[in-house]
Amino acid sequence: MIYSVIVDLSASEVDRIFDYKGEGYTVGTRVLVNFGKRRTEGYIIGEKETSDCDESKLKEIVCACEDFPAISADLLELGAYMRREYHLRWADVLRLFIPAEMRGNRVHLLSKQQVSLATDDSLDKILERLKPNATMQRDLVAYLYLNGATLAEKINAEFGNSALRALKDKGLVRTEDIVIRRTPYKDLSVGKSEKRTLLPAQQNAVDTVLSDRTGRYLLHGVTGSGKTEVYLTVIEKIVAEGRTCIMLVPEISLTPNMLRQLRERFGDTVALLHSGLSSGERFDEWMRLKNGEAQIAVGARSAVFAPLKNIGAIIIDEEHDGSYISDFNPRYSTIDVATYRAEQNGALLLLGSATPSVQSYYKAKTGALRLIEMPERINKHPLPKVEIVDMAMETRRGNRGIFSSVLRQRLTETLEAGNQAMLFLNRRGYSSFMMCTKCGYVAKCEDCDITLTVHREDNRLKCHYCGKQYYVLDKCPQCGSAAFRQGKTGTQQVVEMLEHMYPGVKVLRMDADTTQTKESHGKILEAFRRGEAQILVGTQMIAKGHDFPKVTLVGILDGDQSLYRQDYLATERTFQLITQVAGRSGRDKDVGTVVLQTYTPTHDCLQLAARQDYKGFYRSEINIRKPSHFPPFSEIVRILYSGEKESECIDQLTEQYAELAELKLKHPDAFYYLDKMRCPLKRAEKKFRFQILMKLAVERLSEILPDIYAVCDSKRRSGVQIFVERDPQNLS
Ligand code: ADP
Ligand code: ZN
Ligand code: ZN
Questions:
Q1: Contact 81, 341 (CB under 8 A)
Q2: Any ligand 1 atom below 6 A from CB of 432
Q3: What's domain 635-726's architecture?
Q4: Is the domain 2-102 a CATH 3.40.1440.60 member?
Q5: CB–CB of 596/556 below 8 Å?
Q6: pLDDT tens digit string along 448-478?
C-alpha cells in the first residue's frame, strides 16, 4: 500500500505530501519515517494503490508512533478545510489536533505499581504463615487486608521494601502495574449539584435550541441572566441521547468555574483541555475523550479540536471574545471551525454572550443564526447602577491619583457593609514606563518596539511582548541623569495603594504575573469566592464570566483605555469590556454599583455601555460600518511579513504587493481597499514587521482568496515569514 504522509518538520516551509510504502496502517496514524538523512515523525493522511512517483524509489514507513490513529478521519477533513481557508501548512494544522507532547514521544500514560494480597484467606490464616517476630510483614499484611490494594510507593515508604519483597517471595502479596490518571484541578471544591428549575426565559431558550438539533443559535442574554444554566441543560439533554458535547470559554481563567459546574452535574464524564495543564494531565484528558470515557470537553479555544466522535452540541460562551481568533500561527477562527465541525457531525451550535460581536449579531439579524434573547437578570434582579466619573474634572480639583473621590467613597461604603469589590485595570505591572525627566529617554526592549514596564516585586523592567527582563535604570544611559518619571499606574501599584488606604483589608490581584503557575487562576478565584479577600484587582482576566454573589461594587479605573486603539474594533471592544466588567456587580440580592472613570464622559460608547444598551450600541456601530465597508460588510485580510533583515521584508512585500495590485485591477469589485505599510508594532522579537491590508467584498471572498493565497506563495524569500490573517482582532 502507498501512504500519503505529512512530515512533521517544525521550522521548514515545506508543505508537501510525500509517498511512503507500508502495510496495515490506518489513515490518521502518526508514524516514524526517514526523511532525507533524518528520522522524523509524520502523519498518514491518505492511502492509495499506486504512487505517481517511481515506486521502487519510495521509502518504507519505519513504524507507527502509537497503536491507534491519533487523528480521526473527520478531523483530517477539518484539517484540509482549515488549510484551504486560512492558508496554513498541513503540519501546523495537524499539530492542533493532538496534545503537544505526543510529538517527540514526550508523554505517556502514567503507570505505577500497586500492591495487593494474593490470597482470599482470612487475616488470621495469613498471619499463621508468618513468624511472630516478623513485625513489619505482619503489619503490612494487616494493612493490605484492611485497606485493599495500595500503591507500592506508599507501602515502601511505610513498611520498607524488604518486607514487601519477603511477602512477594512467599506468594502472599502480588504487585501489578496500573494506569494512574492525572486529573487537572483535582482539588476544585465541587459541591452537590443543585438542579434548578429553569425560569421561563431559560426554558424558552432551551426549548428553542433543542427544537432543531442541527440549528445555529445566538443566545443574547444580559450579564446574570442565567446563560450557564441554559448551556448545562442543553448538554444534559444531548449527553442523555448518547452524543458528546464541546463547551468553550474564552480564557483559561474561566475554565475552573465552568469545570466546577460541569463536574457538579456530570461528574467524571467531563474532561478539560487547555494549554495551562501539565503535559500528563492534558494527555490523559485527551485520551479519555478519545476513547469515549469522557463525553464532555470543556476548555479554551483549543478544546474545539477535542477528539470526540458523534458530537451533538458545540457551545461557545462569551462568543464575542477576541481570543477565539488565534493571533499566532496557526491562525484560525474558532467559531468557523466550530461551525464546520457542527456541520460534519450534524450537531447544534450555540453561541452565547451579553455583548455579541457585531459580526454575530448581524448574522442573527440576517438569518444565518437564530436569535434567542434573555433581556432580564435572574429574578428580575436590576442591572447595576453605573456612575460615570469625569477624571479631567477630578484633576482640575487637584486629585491626580488613580482613584476618584467617588470611587474612594463607594469603596469605603462597600467594605463597611461587608461586601466585596472588583477593580478593573487592563495594565499589569507597577507602572507603564520609566522616562528620564532631563532628556526624555524612555527604556525600550532591545528586540521589540515596545516600552518596558516597571515591575516592583522583582524590581525589573519587563517587555510585555517577548518577556525579556532588564535591570531597573539607576541612571539614564543617554544623559546620565538619575531623575526618572514613571508612567501610568499598573495593577501592582493599585494593590499597594489600596493596602495603604485600607490597612487590614486583604487585596488579591489577578493578572498575567500572578497566574503563571499551574492552577493559580483557580486558587485566586476560589480564595475570593470564599471571602478571604475583600478586593480583587485585575486585568481583562476578571472582566467576564465570573459570578461572585458578594460583589456589589465594580470600579473601572481607566474606561477609555481601549478607545485609543487605532482600529475599527476600538468602540466594540470598549463597549464589550465595560458592559462585561459592570456585569460582575450586584449579581445577588444587593443592587450593584459601578464606578466608571474616564476622560471622555460624554462619549457615546461609554454612555451606551453604562446603560447596558446593546441594541443602541449595535445600531450606532452598524450605521458607521456600512458606508465605510467595515466588517460585517467586508472581510479584513492582513498579510504579515516578518524577518530579521528589514530590506528583505520590504522587497518581499513590494513584489507581492505588485501582484495583488494587479489582481485588484482585474477584480476591482472584490477589493474595497488595498495598501501596504509598516505594522504599528514595527519590530518584535528581533524581527521587523510589515503588512498588506485588504478589505474584501464578502460575496467575492471564496473566489478571490485562492488567488491571494497564490500570491503569498510566489517569489518566496527564505528570510521572510509570511502569515495570513482573516479578520484579525489585533492589528498591531
Ligand atoms: P450569565 O452567564 O448569564 O451571566 P449566570 O449563568 O452566571 O449568568 O447566572 C447568574 C446567577 O443566577 C448565578 O448565580 C446562577 O446560579 C443563578 N441562576 C441561574 N439560573 C437560575 C435559576 N433557574 N434559578 C435560580 N437561580 C439561577
Ligand atoms: Zn536622560
Ligand atoms: Zn521584547
A1: no
A2: no
A3: 2-Layer Sandwich (3.30)
A4: yes
A5: yes
A6: 999 999 999 889 999 999 999 999 999 999 9
